[in-house]
Each structure stands twice: as C-alpha cells, then as structure tokens.
C-alpha cells in the first residue's frame, strides 16, 4: 500500500463502486448506485428484489452486521490461528482488517490501490476476482476464540487473559461428537456472508492475504445456501434433509427477545462484549443417502414437522405453535418425545432461543460415493452456557435425527459489538 | 523445478567482474596494498583470520582447511550481502579469495560442513568510503549477484563431477550422500538455471513433466534409481549426460547478465519454489531431501536480496527491516529441523511442523513480492 494513495477512484483504477456508478445513474451512494445499475438490467418487482440483494449493508453501527442482517444466500467462514507473539502486530492487523472490511463491504477493492491501479511490477493489493461485482450485501463479522486469551498451556498470550468472558467457555463434549481438531476452534473467526459467492470468497481471501505472517488459516468452510431466515421478510429455506429449517428462529423484528437472548449486555461480565454476541459453529455432516431411503412418515416423525409446508405435526401452518401435549388416536404424542422440533424448541428449553444462521454445504464426495454434505450450523446468542449448551446436551442424548448426523467440527467465538466509525476497529475495546 | 520461464535472458556476452571470486587457488602473488594474502586457518570448530583490519581496495584471503569437513569462506557486508566467497574447500586444501572491499565494516565467516551462519569474525576496512548513488547501487547489485552465481556454478560443477563419478562407480552410498549437497548449489540459483528452457527439464525434470518421446533423465532419474532399486549400474550414460548438461548450463549462467528487476523476481521465484514444491515434498519424492532444497532456495533468495540491499535501503528502509525480521523467522523455524550438517527428511516432519514452515514462508514472501516495485521505481 503506498502512502500517497487516496480513497478517490483514479484513472485506470475503476473501483467496483465506481464501475457501478458509471453503469447506473449519478453517484448517489453505494446502495443507490447499485440500484441504478440493476434498474437498467431489468424492471418491476423482480428488479427491486435484485437491487436490494446487490446493494451494500452498512459496516458501521451499534452491532456488527451479519448477525440480524437478513441472512444472505452464501457463506465463506474462516478460522485463523494467530502465529505472532507480538501484540502490536496483532493490533495493527485488526486495524488493517477493519479498514479493508469497510472498503469491501461497500463494494470497493480490499486495498487503497486496488486490483489494477498499481505499478506493473508490484502485486496488486486486491486480488481482483470481485472487479465489476456489486457489494452483494457482503457482511464481515469477526469473533475471538478462547485460545486467543490463553494457549493450551494456560499462557496469557497477549495480556488479555483477564478479559476472557466467562460465557466464552470451552464447549463440553456432547454425546456422539466426532470432532476433528484440525477443523475445529481457532483464535479469530471471520464470517463472510453475501448474495454472490464470489464476493464472499474474495473477502476472505483478501483478509487471509493481508494477515500473512500474523495469522494463518486454520480451517475454512463454504456454504452455498442459507438454511435459516433471520427476518420475517424472508421465506424459510430448506436444509439438505429437504425440510424447512429455522422456522422458530430469533428474528430481527423481535426487539425484546434480541435484547434478552442475543446481545451481551453491560453487566454480563465482560464490558468489551456489551452489544456483541457469542457464536457457536458446528459442522454437521448429514448422512444423506441413508436419510433419502427413509420413509416420508419416518422423516416427518424425526423432524416433528411436515415436509411440505413445514407445519408442526397436527397443525396446518408453518408458523403455528407446536402442541407438544397433543396425543394421537393411539395415545402416543403427535410430536414424538425424540422429535427434533420438540427437543430444540425454546418452550422446552427454559425459553432459551438461538439466532441460527447456518448454511448448507457440499464439500464434494467422500470417496465412498457419498456426498460429503450437511449443515454448517452457526448460532448467535447472549450466553452459550444457558442457551446452546443445554439445548445441544438434550439433542445429543435424545434427538432421533442423530442417526443421520455427525458433528465433525466445533467452534465458539465472542463477537464484539459493532465498529462505530472510521476511527474504531475490530477488538478495540478488548485491546485498549 | 518449474516449467515457467520468467527470466528472459538479457544482454548476452561475458560480464567482466572486478575482483572475481577466486576459485582457482595457487596464485601466491602478494597483495599490492596489504603486502600478502591474509591467512585464514579453518577447522571444524574455528576460523582464525590473520587480521581484523585492512585497507580499502583489493584484499586477498588464503583459506586453509585443516578440519575434516568441507568448508566455505565468506566476506559479508551488512545484511549478509556476499562480497566474496570460496565454496567447496576440501579437507587439507587451500584456496584463495580475492575481493574488492570499500571502507566499512564487514564480517568473515567459515562454514565447516557448509551449513548454518558459520563461524563469524569482524573485519574493519579503513579508507575513504565512496557513497553510492541510487543507480550505482543497482548496478552494483547485479555485479554482486553475478559473483554469487559464479561461485555457485563453480561448486555445482565440481560437485556434479563427484556425484557422476560415484554413480558410474556404482558407489550407491557415496552417491546418496553427494546428492543433496550437489543439488544445494543448483537450488540456490535455480531461477537463473531455469531461464535456459531446454536444459532445465533435462537436468531437473520430474518424471511427470517429461513429454512424450523425451527420456526421463537428470538428477531426479538418478534419485529414483538410488532410492528405489538402489541400482545405478545402468545409469552411466544418464550420469554422463547430466554432467554435459550441467557444464552447458554453467557456461550459459556465467555469460548471463541479470537486471536488478530480474534479481527481485528471482528472489520471489525461489520462495515460490519452496511454497509449491518443497513444503509438499514433491521435489524429492524418493530421497525426501526436500529440506536441503528448501534451505538452498532460501539462501538463494537471501543472496539476491542482499545484492539489492544497498539500493533497497536507500529506497525503502522499512521494507528492509521487515525482510530482515522475516528472514530471521524462517531461518529459526527451519533451523529446528537440522540433522547434523544436513536436514531431516521431509517424511520426518509432522503436518503441524510443515504448516509452521509454510506460514513462515508466506510471511516472508509477501514483503519479498514488494521488492520488484521498489527496484523499478
């Protein structure tokens, strides 16, 4: 990055934002410009939806974007190990990352010079595969894992061990866990969600590149389709079992519940986390082929909902409340004791909610002719000790679905509150 | 090895180099200014240099190896920029180094076993230090690197002769021992060698890159025979051809004048070699001596950057500082895997250790990738 470079688009260094502006109407801000570009391509309601999907999500705010933001269609998630011992280097990286994230979420290049704006002898400071693409609602959400605070030997790595929140506790072993350490955990995570997979991958690739020598990619995961809706405007999507997933999810419109269940509050134990949220990730391999051979009745019994409409068994509509007390003619519960919806429902878990934001994945095939596929589960919450952990403990013991599932990766991260302005940066309160 | 050729041969013609790094020995003419060569007594554990202060100008060292290991002698400027060196001093032999030294502070080093930082000593050169203009610094870089190429190719030739002789004598143990040492000299200057397209695949081609109708020859063919069947009795013709090809490439490399930009790109290319071929164990798939190549590639990168150092310091001191830090980091990380005078086998490293090496190379390669633009401006 050169010192004299500025944010202003330069001749021959058309930023993505500028490209869009030129294609559409005047320079009316990123979202407006993107809308203009879209309007030229098509018309009517479809165009309106397309425009919104192509637009930008504000990077700055009270909370990080990418949590209650209506779930985008694609995911690239990465977990990093910090490889430096130098706190100053780590802080400098977090600042550089924040600046790059602000640019990329606005549809600009990762660096100030850009993919094609520099001298021919230098490698570009943006990798270029997102040139010409709109912001696509890209959000970049950062989180800090337990190992950032203390290493396996208990050493305080960066002088922040006393700031580790109690809620950021290592997850216990759940029955049936088949976790692979090399794709679990991590010191820092970044969740990139966008409506264009190329935009999400571009963001993670450039962050990883900026981090060379300070962090190293531990593992990463692509998700090709959202499995949850985080807003009432969105239709509930389906997971790879073919069922609607996330019907009873926490949604952006549930202001009271979000305060109570999603956002860490002042007084929760770690002030730097107030306004943030805890993320649990689980890569859940689905044994697709055996599931596909099970009868429709069995599938619906396991889930506790109908496959077509997603209505709870015994009810007519997707959003009807399930009746867990109802009995059938045979005297058995309509929704089985081991049905997934019963075990996971807030009403059965002391009111504990999760904001789920998972994605379907297919990592090719596994060499035995089976899809290496499943759900990359992500859930945000105020305190995993009172939310994810008790829920998953019940599921791991009793869920009839377990026969078709393998949990192969696990992570927990404290995602700090939002970046307030251009002077703020990821983790400032933690490192100040 | 690589198949891309990034080094387009620049002006042909022999480059006249002042103070040619001596590899002949036997010239006992007293040094004009200091009154005779400075004696260097090298053993396996000591490096006694006759004096630590000399006058600026041409300085001659006479290095005698009375140890049991093959030795090397270097004169370094700041940042380990090689001012002159003699390679491959066999036990019991003496060799001379003549080097042109401007006033300044330097370090001498013997490297018994040809490994590590060597046994260092200070050398002060007094006189008038001429400040080097930016463009002169770049010119000096190419001359400095040319000295390096000449010393490496000389050693490559000698070691290849020994290796070929061992193969033809069917001395499998000796050939195996010489294999990674010989390849060290190749790997240090690999980007230069690779610029001569047709010779590179004959010398360094791996089995899968051999094209239809072309024979699988060179180092890796002999490597395969040495480490799989242990039978090189039919490899005489291949060994002879290897020596012929190495002689040809040495002659071409010494006739080559590289531009500063080519030096910068060559430094990056060497790290790309490490990242793509050595970390993965692809290069030395039978002998598993990839870490020897890794170290040699790293040394070659360092030599190219050291040659550019005076110019880089004038243009981007911060970048030089970053490079120093990251070079030290890779060396420390790689240093964990030393085994005697050589290196552990690739197969002896865990996945976590390989990842740590990969991370350290990435950390160095990012600033290295910025050198070319600094040189070009």
Strand and helix map with partners:
The complex is a heterodimer of chains A (432) and B (377).
Chain A: H1 16-23, H2 29-41, H3 44-54, E1 74-82, H4 87-105, E2 139-144, E3 188-194, H5 197-210, E4 215-223, E5 225-226, H6 255-262, E6 277-286, H7 288-292, H8 296-303, H9 340-344, E7 355-356, E8 359-365, E9 371-381, H10 388-398, E10 405-415, H11 428-431
Antiparallel strand pairs in A: 1-3, 1-4, 2-3, 5-8, 6-9, 6-10, 7-9, 8-9
Chain B: E1 38-42, E2 47-49, E3 53-55, E4 57-65, E5 71-77, E6 81-89, E7 94-101, E8 104-110, E9 119-126, H1 134-168, H2 172-188, H3 190-194, H4 199-204, H5 218-229, H6 236-254, H7 260-278, H8 290-315, H9 317-335, E10 338-339, E11 342-343, H10 351-368, H11 371-376
Parallel strand pairs in B: 1-4, 3-9
Antiparallel strand pairs in B: 1-2, 4-7, 5-6, 5-8, 8-9, 10-11
Helix pairs in contact in B: 1-2, 1-6, 1-8, 2-5, 2-8, 5-6, 7-8, 7-10, 8-9, 9-10
Structure characterization notes:
The complex is a heterodimer of chains A (432) and B (377). Chain A is 25% helix and 17% strand. Mean pLDDT of chain A is 90; it is low at 1-15 and 17-44. Chain A has 11 helices and 10 strands. Chain A has helices spanning 16-23, 29-41, 44-54, 87-105, 197-210, 255-262, 288-292, 296-303, 340-344, 388-398, 428-431; strands at residues 74-82, 139-144, 188-194, 215-223, 225-226, 277-286, 355-356, 359-365, 371-381, 405-415. By secondary structure, chain A is of the alpha+beta class. In chain A, β8 and β9 form a beta hairpin. The radius of gyration of chain A is 22 Å and the shape is globular. In chain A, strands 5, 6, 7, 8, 9 and 10 form a 6-stranded antiparallel β-sheet that branches. Chain A has a 4-stranded antiparallel β-sheet with strand order 2-3-1-4, covered by helices on one side. Chain B has a domain at 141-376: A middle domain of Talin 1, CATH 1.20.1420. The two termini of chain B are 30 Å apart. Chain B is built from 11 helices and 11 strands. Chain B has 377 residues and is α+β, with helices and mostly antiparallel strands. The longest helix of chain B is centred in the middle third of the chain and has 35 residues, at 134-168. Chain B has a 5-stranded mixed β-sheet with strand order 3-9-8-5-6. The interface between A and B is medium-sized, with 11 and 19 residues.
């Amino acid at each position: 990055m050169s010192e004299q470079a500025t944010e202003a688009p330069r001749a021959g260094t058309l930023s993505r934002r500028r490209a869009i502006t030129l294609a559409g109407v005047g320079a009316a801000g990123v979202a407006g410009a993107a809308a203009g570009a879209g309007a030229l391509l098509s018309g009517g309601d479809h165009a309106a939806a397309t425009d919104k999907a192509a637009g930008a999500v504000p990077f700055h705010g009270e909370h990080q974007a990418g949590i209650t933001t209506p779930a985008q269609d694609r995911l690239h998630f990465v977990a990093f190990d910090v490889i430096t011992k130098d706190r100053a280097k780590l802080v400098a990286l977090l600042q550089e990352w924040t600046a790059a994230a602000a640019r990329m979420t606005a549809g600009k290049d990762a660096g100030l010079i850009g993919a094609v704006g520099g001298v021919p002898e230098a490698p570009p400071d943006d990798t270029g595969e997102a040139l010409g693409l709109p912001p696509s609602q890209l959000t970049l959400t950062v989180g800090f894992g337990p190992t950032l605070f203390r290493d396996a030997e208990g050493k305080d790595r960066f002088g922040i061990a006393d700031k580790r929140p109690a809620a950021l506790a290592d997850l216990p072993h759940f029955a049936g866990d088949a976790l692979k350490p090399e794709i679990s955990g991590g010191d820092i995570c970044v969740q990139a969600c966008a409506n264009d997979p190329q935009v999400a991958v571009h963001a993670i690739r450039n962050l990883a590149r900026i981090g060379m020598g300070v962090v190293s990619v531990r593992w990463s995961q692509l998700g090709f389709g959202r499995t949850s809706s985080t807003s009432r405007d969105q239709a509930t999507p389906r997971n790879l079992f073919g069922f609607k997933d996330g019907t009873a999810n926490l949604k952006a419109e549930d202001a009271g519940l979000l305060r109570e269940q999603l956002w860490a509050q002042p007084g929760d134990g770690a002030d730097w986390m107030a306004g943030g949220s805890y993320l649990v990730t689980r890569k859940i391999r689905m044994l697709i082929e055996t599931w596909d051979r099970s009868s429709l009745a069995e599938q619906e019994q396991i889930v506790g909902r109908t496959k077509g409409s997603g209505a709870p068994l015994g009810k007519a509509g997707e959003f009807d409340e399930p009746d867990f007390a109802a009995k059938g003619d045979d005297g058995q519960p309509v929704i089985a004791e081991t049905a997934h919806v019963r075990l996971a429902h807030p009403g059965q878990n002391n009111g504990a909610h999760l904001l789920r934001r998972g994605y379907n994945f297919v990592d090719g095939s596994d060499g035995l002719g089976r899809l290496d596929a499943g759900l990359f589960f992500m859930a945000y919450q105020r305190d995993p000790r009172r939310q994810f952990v008790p829920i998953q403990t019940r599921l791991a013991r009793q869920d009839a679905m377990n026969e078709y599932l393998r949990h192969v990766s696990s992570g927990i991260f404290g995602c700090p509150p939002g970046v307030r302005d251009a002077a703020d940066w990821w983790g400032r309160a933690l490192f100040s | 090895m690589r198949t891309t050729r990034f080094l387009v041969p620049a002006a042909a013609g022999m480059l006249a180099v002042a103070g040619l790094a001596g590899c002949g020995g036997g010239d006992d003419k007293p040094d004009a200014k200091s009154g005779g060569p400075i004696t260097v007594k090298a053993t396996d554990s000591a490096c006694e240099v006759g004096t630590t202060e000399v006058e600026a100008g041409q300085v001659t060292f006479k290095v005698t190896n009375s140890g049991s290991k093959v030795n090397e002698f270097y004169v370094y400027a700041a940042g380990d920029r090689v001012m002159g060196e003699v390679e491959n001093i066999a036990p019991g032999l003496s060799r001379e180094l003549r080097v042109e030294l401007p006033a300044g502070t330097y370090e001498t080093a013997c490297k018994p076993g040809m490994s590590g930082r060597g046994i260092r000593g200070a050398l002060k050169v007094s006189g008038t230090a001429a400040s080097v203009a930016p463009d002169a610094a770049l010119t000096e870089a190419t001359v400095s690197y040319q000295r390096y190429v000449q010393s490496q190719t000389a050693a490559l030739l000698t070691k290849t002769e020994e290796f070929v002789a061992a193969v033809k004598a069917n001395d499998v143990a000796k050939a195996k021992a010489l294999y990674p040492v010989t390849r060290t000299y190749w790997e240090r200057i690999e980007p230069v060698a690779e610029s001569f397209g047709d010779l590179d695949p004959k010398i360094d081609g791996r089995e899968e890159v051999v094209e239809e109708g072309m024979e699988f020859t060179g180092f890796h063919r002999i490597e395969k025979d040495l480490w799989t069947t242990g039978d090189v009795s039919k490899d005489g013709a291949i060994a002879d051809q290897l020596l012929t090809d190495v002689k040809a490439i040495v002659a071409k490399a010494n006739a080559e004048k590289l531009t500063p930009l080519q030096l910068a790109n060559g430094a990056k290319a060497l790290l790309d070699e490490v990242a793509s071929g050595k970390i993965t164990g692809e290069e030395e798939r039978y002998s598993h001596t990839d870490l020897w190549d890794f170290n040699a590639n790293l040394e070659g990168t360092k030599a190219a950057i050291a040659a550019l150092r005076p110019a880089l310091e004038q243009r981007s001191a911060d970048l030089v500082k970053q490079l120093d830090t990251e070079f030290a980091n890779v060396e420390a990380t790689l240093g964990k895997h030393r085994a005697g005078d050589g290196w552990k086998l690739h197969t002896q490293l865990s996945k976590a250790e390989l990842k740590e090496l990969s991370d350290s190379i990435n950390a160095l390669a990012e600033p290295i990738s910025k050198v070319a633009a600094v040189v070009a401006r």
